[in-house]
Amino acid sequence: MKRTSLLFCIALLIVGCSTCQNKNTANNAAKAIDYAKTITANNLKENLYTYASDEFQGRKTGEPGQKKAVEFIKNHYITLGIPSPIAYGDYFQDIPASFFTSDITNGSENVLAYIKGSEKPNEVIIISAHLDHIGVSKNGDINNGADDDGSGTVAILEIAKAFKTAADKGYGPKRTILFLHVTGEEIGLYGSRYYTDVDPVFPLKNTIANLNIDMIGRVDPKHENQRNYLYLIGSDKLSKELHNISEAVNKEYFNMEFDYTYNDDNDPNRFYYRSDHYNFAKKNIPVIFYFNGTHADYHKPTDTPDKIQYDLLEMRTRLIFHTAWELANRDKRVKVD
């Protein structure tokens, strides 16, 4: 073959591969949009009105209401056909009462479910939220914790459904997704610490990122006139690449305002250290903490599901799904700086 002909063939091959790659990228993005649409305000509302009802008695760690909460979560995964990584039918990571230094007389449990990656199953993305709240006040008022963190809990359930729908149609994530509902957050981040320090079901060295959701259903006073926002904390502390991916996903699909006020190292609220992502960050795992800020009903009986802004909850949940989709399907795992 003549040299000119050979070069021409190579050029065609390169162009063809590039075109194919662009088509695959575009197709992947289109599929993400399709499956994100399965996350709806109505489903979020239906689940939250149950999860943050009086029946669950404020979900205090180790108490009967918290036990009802974990059964609700488990049954949701069983209905969806999403398995547990622990053992067949066993979704509970049991935590003995002795692990808690607080006044806990009964043990508690994290709830785990997962979708196995199709190409890189050993690399894991963890999406987390805490399942507990502060229980019943001394005067008998129930602290339902609709925003804290009922909103994060039902968001994960919808994200899991979206990934399962995709997997059932042949578009499962390339990397494994672990849906992790942790207990004991309100009394000291116990559930996430048990997972990271005692019993990481998937090796931490293979855990590429943690997306943690803690209160995403409301609007704080600062943003009353600009609802299209979300606080992000920690996204750039361990991986600039994770931060850039997060920004790119938002720009592509939502264009909401990302407020990094609480990401400041000198933030007096120290929110970076106050939710479950921090136990992953301590293990050098890149994290993003999604948060709507505090409001007048924070840790009060008035944090009820009727005050959740479900259109915002839907959009924020879809944002987190898109971010997880990108992390799960990109060629390389995010770099730790």
The gist of it:
The protein is an alpha/beta fold and 337 residues long.
- Mind telling me the C-alpha Rg? 21 Å
Structure class: alpha/beta
Distance between the termini: 48 Å
Spatial strand order of the main sheet:
1-2-4-3-5-8-6-7
Structure summary, number of beta strands:
8
Low-pLDDT segments: 6-15, 17-23
% residues in beta strands: 15-25%
Largest sheet features? 8 strands, mixed
Indicate how many domains the architecture comprises. Answer: 1
Query: Tell me, what's the shape?
Result: globular
Mean pLDDT: 93
- Level of helix content? 25-40%
* CATH third-level topology: Aminopeptidase
Number of helices: 8
What's the CATH H-level superfamily name? Answer: Zn peptidases
What's the CATH class, please? Alpha Beta
> So, CATH architecture?
3-Layer(aba) Sandwich
- Helices and strands, in order, run as HHHEEEHEHEEHEHEH
Q: Can you offer a commentary on this structure?
A:
With about 325 residues, this protein is α/β, with parallel strands linked by helices. It has one domain (about 35-330): Zn peptidases (Aminopeptidase, 3-Layer(aba) Sandwich). Helix content is about 40%, strand content about 15%. The protein has helices at about 5-35, 40-50, 65-80, 145-170, 190-200, 240-255, 275-280, 310-330, and strands at about 90-95, 110-115, 120-130, 175-180, 205-215, 230-235, 255-260, 285-290. The chain has an eight-stranded mixed sheet with strand order 1-2-4-3-5-8-6-7, with helices on both faces. Strand 6 (about 230-235), helix 6 and strand 7 (about 255-260) form a beta-alpha-beta unit. Helix 2 (about 40-50) crosses helix 8, helix 3 (about 65-80) packs parallel to helix 4 and helix 6 (about 240-255) packs across helix 8 (about 310-330). The longest helix has about 35 residues, at about 5-35. The radius of gyration is 21 Å and the shape is globular. The relative contact order is 0.16.
